[in-house]
Amino acid sequence: MTPSEQMLQMITSYWLSQALGAVARLGIPDQIAREPKTGEQVAKAVGVSADAAHRLLRALASIGVFRLLEDGRFGLTPLGETLRGDVPGSVRDFAIAETDAAHWQPWGRFSDSIKSGRPIIKAALGMELWEWYAQHPEDSRSFSSAMGNLSRMVAGELVRLVDFSNVQKVVDVGGANGVLLAAILHAHPKLSGILFDLPHVIEAAKPVIEGEGLIDRCELIRGDFFKEVPSGADVHVLKHIIHDWDDERAIRILANCQRALRPNGRVLLVEMVIPADNAPGPAQLIDLNMLVLLGGRERSEAEFAALLKKADFKPPRWIHTDTPFVVIDAQRA
User: How far apart are CA 60 and CA 65, in angstroms?
Assistant: First the structure.
C-alpha cells in the first residue's frame, strides 16, 4: 500500500465507524450468529432495504467482520462476534454510543475545537453532554451500556491485581450501570458497595444491579460528585471519570473523595495513560475525544501524580493490566 492509499484509508475510516454502528444498532450480528443468512434474509429480519443490507454486509465481509460464503450467505467471524449483545468481549453498545448524535455531531465540528482549544458540544447539540443524556433516555442507556463494555474489559484485571482483603465498603463513583462494582462484589462476597451517579443514570442502573443479584449489598445513591461523594468507604473506584475533566474540576472530584474516605482510604483510578514515548495506543485519540466533548484530557503518569498530590493523596502505585487501562492506586494522605 502506497502512502497515498494508506492516507485515503485513514481519511475514510469514519465510513467504517458508521457501518459498524449500523450493524450493531440493527442487531445484525446476532441474526447471523444463529445461522448464516443472505442480505435479503437479514433485511427482512431487521426491517431494512434488501439491497442496502447486502451492500453493508459485503463491505464488512471484505474486512473480516463477516464471512461471505460460496452460496451468497453471510456468516459471523470472531471479529464480528464482538458486535453481538450479551456475549463476553462485546463492544456492541460502544459502537452504538460512539456513532449516536451525542458523539457524532460534535466531531463534525472538530476543527472548531482545535481552533479554540475548547469543547464544541454545546454549539453542536445546544447543550452539554450530560444535559443531552438526561433529556435523551435511549442515548443515555446506550452510553451507560457502552461504559459497561469498557468496564467488563478491565473488571477481571482489577479484581485479579488489586488487594481488597482489608476493605469493607467500596464506592463506584460515576459508575454508570455498576459493571465494575458488580465484579468487585461478586469476587469478594463480604464487601458492600455504593453505586453513585447522576439521578437519571441511577434510575437506569437499578434493574442491572437487581439482575446481578446484588441489590442487598449495593446501595444506589444519586448525586453530583462536584458537590460531594458518599462518605465512610475504604475505597473509591473511578473508571474513566478524571479524564472527562480539566485539572481544576478533576482536583475537585478527587478532593471530595479524599474528604469522604475513611482514614487510610484509597482511590483506584482506572484510566488510560499517555505513554512517555508516545507509543501507539488508544489514549492519544481518546484525548481528542475529550477535547471535543467535555474539555477533559488523557494524562501522563506525572500529570496524574500531580493531580493526586494537589488533592492530598500520597504518591500513587501504578498497576498495569492486560488491557489498555492502568489502575492508579493512591492512599489518602
Answer: 5
CATH number of the domain to which 260 belongs: 3.40.50.150
Q: Name the pTM for this structure.
A: 0.91
Average pLDDT over residues 97-106: 96
Strand runs (DSSP E) across 92-214, as ranges?
169-173, 192-197
Closest-CA residue to 240 (of 261, 212, 198, 270): 270
Residue 243 a catalytic site member: yes
- What's the pLDDT tens digit per position in 118-155? 999 999 999 999 999 999 999 999 999 999 999 999 99
Q: Is the pLDDT of residue 160 over 90?
A: yes
Residue 91 lies in a domain: no
Catalytic residue among 103, 136, 240, 243: 243
What total of structural domains would you count in the chain?
2
Task: Give the SS3 label for residue 84.
Answer: coil
Residue that finishes a domain, picked among 83, 112, 132: 83
